[in-house]
Design goal:
Helix content: 25-40%
Radius of gyration: 29 Å
């Protein structure tokens, strides 16, 4: 399991066999909604959303832990865009709680038993989360509180978060939902880039899908296709004219995406107060590609594709181009000689 905040036990809930719970509900694991809002298990079905959230065993007595859990639950509700039919269970190493309001938690004696009863109860009785008690009884008829459109929307929100890395202090999101990342800037003297490391700055995170850019770099990097996706047309042309230097440049780009250091520049034009057209260039970072070993394999494949492309295609094209240029030059020289433009 991924490393969690050191204040939260890392081995929580492993004693619960999720495959035996909520068989007809979708299961998601290890979801980071923010730096501190972590969900170990999330069950999603027509009868609602079950959240199993790590907490300290001292939730009932610790005001600071109650405040943290309350903030986390609020962040989760905002991220899911759903305020009702979310059934939050906070589980510690030894103590667990059903807590719609973490400031007023209900201690559970048997976490697995309560989860199973809660699942049976909510699948037959349309019950709001704040009305749940430990004395749950199964109803008679199946009911649905979430329609298919809502479930599909929730899945599209949840899937990108599954097994995602914990956001750190170098990532933030503004009120408009735009994500920023803290990186070292280039040291500039006037408008000259010295190539040295400057102060840390917040850079905007690209909305481009990183895996799409990465796989394009792997299989089309020799032609500069991934550079077209990031609107770096000059570099794309350079890659195409050089075959990506045998796949070396695309492989280095893949390495940058795996390490989270790949950035490109977006150019925008706007009119200033005087009506003068101004050009502005902004560095934008791609989100880091998840999966170190997959990234290493992609680097190797990019190099292999580059070598094969250089050996069997690019070299032949280059040879053909040189032949055509030589023949064209000879023809032009012959014509010029015959016309007297070149002295005999």
């Amino acid at each position: 399991m991924k490393q969690i905040d050191p204040n939260i036990p890392a081995e929580l809930l492993d004693r619960i066999p999720p495959e035996e719970l909520c068989e007809d509900m979708a299961l998601f694991t290890n979801l980071y909604f923010s730096e501190y809002s972590f969900v170990k298990y999330l069950f999603l079905g027509t009868n609602g959303v079950f959240l199993l959230i790590p907490c300290k065993d001292s939730l009932m007595e610790n005001d600071a832990e109650q405040k943290r859990c309350k903030t986390a639950l609020q962040e989760l509700k905002e991220a899911l865009g759903l305020s009702q039919y979310i059934y939050p269970i906070f589980a510690g190493d030894e103590r667990s709680y059903y807590a719609v309001d973490p400031c007023n938690p209900m201690a559970l004696n048997n976490l697995y038993g309560f989860l199973h009863k809660l699942y049976l109860h909510t699948s037959t009785i349309k019950t709001r989360p704040e009305q749940i008690s430990e004395n749950l009884e199964e109803g008679e008829e199946k009911v649905a509180v979430l329609d298919e459109n809502t479930i599909e929307r929730l899945i599209q929100t949840i899937v990108p978060l599954e097994d995602n890395e914990r956001p750190g202090g170098n990532v933030r999101t503004d009120a408009d939902g735009t994500e920023y990342i803290l990186k070292d800037s280039d040291l500039m003297i006037g408008k000259i880039n010295t190539g040295l490391v400057g102060k840390k700055k917040w850079f905007r995170v690209s909305e481009l899908h990183t895996p799409s850019v990465l796989y394009t770099a792997v299989f089309g990097g020799c032609l500069g296709l991934h550079k077209l996706m990031t609107m770096e047309y000059t570099q794309g042309l350079l890659y195409a004219l050089t075959g990506g230097f045998g796949g070396l440049l695309p492989a280095l780009d893949v390495l940058g995406m795996v390490l989270g250091n790949y950035h490109y520049y977006e150019v925008t034009y706007y009119e200033d107060e005087r009506g003068k057209l101004t050009r502005e260039k902004e560095a934008v970072y791609l989100k880091r590609y998840q999966g170190l070993w997959r990234g290493v394999i992609c680097m190797a494949v990019a190099l292999l594709v580059g070598m094969l492309y250089t050996r069997f295609i690019f070299s032949n094209l280059l040879e053909l181009l040189i032949t055509v240029l030589v023949e064209l030059g000879t023809e032009v020289g012959t014509v010029a000689y015959e016309q007297g433009y070149i002295l005999q």
